[in-house]
Write a sequence for this structure.
């Protein structure tokens, strides 16, 4: 249990305004119900800038292609086989040329500069239906260009599946690159990570309250206290400072409550639930063991957590509607196999609970499928190194986690469909405890 206790970008300064749609969206069309990826072509964007080009058309199209490929929902058609290499935004595609390649969707983009602002127009064509499926126009500063691309990637995924993607978001993580553990944040492809804390002390367990504020445990006052910090202003508020541990925060649905582990009388660690400002903490678990690392079900009905009450760390679930453990509400064990199961993370749709299980001498990622008849445990990774600290993307299709294939810990993302790990932060230091934010578009965030 000691391991659990010890182990736990781009700043967009210009506003991103969603402009008027270019063209009218068609009704949602399911391209394929089979587990095959949709074939999509992304043309190099046309760049029409009055100043020296800040981004090339290929830079932007490749960024969009990477998002779509990482989602595991699309197969990117290589540009070397294109029969139509250039297409203006107001031109109609050569449907036959794209049909020959088996193309199911085509994306065309155009970047202009007007009055010191960049205007990015994007069109998604349904090649099979031979019509315009999605047309968008975005406006903002240079700092917003990447976010525009991430947003359109999410729009493209929504067109295909009926649910937005999760690329217009942020990932926080802990790094010891400064020789102290500080918290950073980046976008989901790891572009230009930015520091959030700079206390030169120990900072752990970041957890997003919304798209601009997160909780974490900091040792500013030589005690592991719980803080809330704004990632832009760096203003922080002390949330819980009871002597002893105040660790592993988790935000409930809608940000109305938080759960975290705190030392109770007798020095045992229990789960508490409080208001977002830390007021009115109510003790949930009552056991002589260490209870920590809570995770809320998206409907707020259940709370998963880690406890060593049977002698080794295992994952339990408690029904919040039935009161605290003191009232006879006994937690239900979710893991029965393995001698070390930790880091539970409930998916946004409530179907899965991701966690890390030790097998032999290394940790792998698993999913509990609550929709299966016997709560099937699905092995997501199977390597010779450690994979830990899973956190879900806002669309519930991907996980971010830490792994050490190079010896030190790096940050990876993985699709639950392809199960292919993708490194996004690969420094020479240790990067751990990642936390994926909500969707910035849906959260109305900066």
């Amino acid at each position: 249990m000691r391991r659990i206790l010890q182990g736990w970008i781009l700043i967009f300064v210009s506003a991103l305004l969603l402009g008027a749609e270019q063209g009218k969206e068609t009704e949602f069309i399911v391209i394929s119900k089979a587990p095959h990826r949709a074939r999509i072509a992304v043309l190099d964007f046309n760049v029409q800038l009055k100043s020296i080009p800040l981004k090339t058309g290929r830079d932007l199209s490749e960024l969009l292609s990477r998002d779509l490929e990482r989602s595991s929902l699309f197969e990117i058609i290589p540009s070397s086989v294109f029969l139509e290499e250039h297409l203006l935004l107001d031109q109609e595609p050569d449907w036959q040329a794209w049909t020959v390649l088996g193309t199911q969707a085509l994306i065309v983009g155009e970047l202009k500069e007007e009055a010191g602002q960049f205007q990015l127009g994007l069109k998604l064509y349904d090649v099979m239906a031979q019509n315009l499926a999605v047309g968008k126009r975005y406006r903002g500063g240079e700092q917003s260009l990447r976010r525009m691309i991430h947003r359109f990637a999410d729009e493209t995924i929504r067109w295909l599946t009926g649910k937005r993607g999760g690329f217009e978001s942020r990932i926080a993580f802990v790094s010891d690159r400064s020789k102290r553990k500080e918290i950073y944040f980046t976008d989901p492809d790891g572009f230009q990570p930015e520091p959030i804390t700079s206390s030169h002390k120990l900072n752990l367990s970041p957890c997003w309250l919304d798209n601009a504020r997160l909780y974490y445990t900091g040792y500013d006052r030589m005690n592991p206290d719980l803080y809330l910090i704004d990632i832009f202003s760096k203003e922080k508020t002390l949330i819980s400072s009871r002597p002893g541990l105040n660790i592993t925060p988790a935000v409930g649905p809608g940000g109305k409550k938080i759960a975290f582990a705190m030392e109770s009388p007798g020095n045992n660690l229990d789960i508490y639930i409080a208001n977002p400002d830390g007021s009115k903490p109510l003790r949930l678990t009552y056991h002589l063991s260490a209870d920590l690392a809570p995770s809320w079900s998206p409907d707020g009905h259940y709370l998963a957590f880690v406890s060593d009450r049977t002698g080794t760390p295992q994952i339990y679930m408690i029904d919040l509607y039935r009161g605290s453990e003191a009232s006879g509400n006994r937690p239900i064990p979710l893991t029965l196999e393995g001698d070390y199961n930790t880091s539970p993370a409930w998916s946004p749709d409530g179907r899965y609970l991701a966690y890390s299980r030790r097998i032999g001498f290394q940790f792998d990622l698993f999913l509990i499928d609550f929709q299966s008849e016997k709560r099937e445990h699905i092995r997501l990774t199977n390597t010779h190194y450690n994979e830990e600290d899973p956190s879900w993307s806002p669309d519930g299709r991907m996980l971010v986690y830490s792994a050490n294939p190079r010896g030190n810990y790096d940050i990876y993302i993985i699709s639950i469909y392809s199960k292919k790990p993708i490194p996004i932060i690969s420094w020479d230091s240790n990067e751990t405890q990642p936390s994926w934010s909500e969707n910035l578009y849906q959260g109305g965030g900066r």
Residues 17-161 form a domain with the Rossmann fold fold (CATH 3.40.50.10070). The chain has two domains: 17-161, 169-440. DSSP finds five helices and 31 strands in the chain. The chain has a mean pLDDT of 90.
